[in-house]
Amino acid sequence: MMDNDFLLTLKNFLGLKAAESLHLRINKITTDSTQVEDGDIFVAQKGTRVDSHQFLFQAQAKGAKILIGEKKIHEIEHKQKISTPYFEVKSAKETISKLAADFYAHPSRVLKIIGVTGTSGKTTTTFLIENILKESGIDVGLIGTIYCRYQDNKIVSSLTTPDSIFLQKKLLEMKKAGVKFVVMEVSSHGIDQARVSDIDFDVVVFTNLSPEHLDYHKTMEDYYNSKLKLFTDISKKSQKNGKNTISVINLDDAYGRRLFQYLKQSNASCVTFSKKEKSDYLVQEVSEHVEGLSFKINEKTYQTTLIGNYNIENVLAAVAASSQFLKEYPYLKTGILSGVKKIQNVPGRLERVHSQVGLHVFVDYAHKPDALQKVLETLRTLLDEKAHLITVVGCGGDRDRSKRPVMAQIAVEQSDFVFFTSDNPRTEDPQVILNEMIKGVPVDQDHFKIELDRKKAIFAAIQMAEVGDIVLIAGKGHEDYQLLPHPQKKGEVQKIHFDDREIAAQAIEMFNK
After folding, report:
1. Residues of the chain with pLDDT > 90: what percent?
2. In CA terms, which of 190, 284, 366, 428 is 20 to 30 Å from 39?
3. Which CATH superfamily groups domain 351-512?
4. Cα dihedral: 159, 161, 165, 166 (round 10)
């Protein structure tokens, strides 16, 4: 954006008087005082852990030309030393979103943007849509839990939905590189914290909703209402900015049905998908096996190497979302079929670890009750009559503690044997986490073992397995690290390299010997 245009935005948005007279040349917008350079706008936030208003003077000293915050000037440390223009706003997060979109010239208004939200299935659905678009010869970008990528560019993600400054900057980069579509995961945190408030969506997808992030949202109603904003406030803003935003909704989920009824009353544009309900995209004639799935959607036959009945919902969501662009891109018709068929393992989503000795070893990201239930039920249906299902699972530290006993109960009820082990304990004592999990094991169940060392647990599970058995290593999926209590610094976290897939491959090699 030209400086004069952005100065006009500042003038309108912040009430900045005679912006032109300041002769500003804005370099960037940042919330990190350590990254401030001459000509930056620094936005301070109260935050849950750190109040960055304490760094306003530091940002000024490093060359910030405009300071923005949520506190009144008399509440700020070193206020007497602050000479740079300071502007108080009601919500720093909404301000950041608005300014970032303006600064990077609203790339989402030109790009086709598909947003996918829900508790489970976001990553697989976005990978499927990405593959469909690639198979159709369309240049596409992906933003999500695993990474942000387009063309030959790839950045490992730290958040499912990045902050609004990063998002707008990357969307502009993609636009300039010739990308036409961007498919992105939209988390409830991302919605609630205004990271996507100024992204204009063409299609928004609802996969499902089950208990998760209740340490943050507190209740399922709050969790649902957070997701709802994507289909109401954000979609309405997208439409106001010229998009014909369409909602794609899963009718097999109770919250999906609720969402559909709500949107239907407001005459919003919706399409639906289901495995059993009357819908716009209906699945029939399902055949599933350990090597993949085949089924029909509206009389067209689809095949995929993805396994598990729940992946049918992900395929449905991807097909329904992609089909909304058929009028403008008719060649998507063949790309949809081949994109679903040619999809490779999604990293950490029932990802197979190769074995030549008849073991079926899978690594999956399932770290919440509903996801674990679905994965275990799926694998159990694929077992041969005399084969066994062995599970390795734990729970993350510094997260919702209420799901720990529920996870343990599901694991023992659905598995022939379970190894309870450390996941990402973070600052918590791993033993305490496991003790809380074990409270959920029914008193008449004893087919489990506690092994704090995750590597030893994975080795033990594979050594226990026999030909034809299935081993599930759940919880960390694509992650190649483990977050442990720091051995010297209490209350801090130590990050070490740890990849379930690598450890499982080592264990399989030992099994072969």
Report:
1. 81
2. 190
3. Mur ligase, C-terminal domain (3.90.190.20)
4. 60
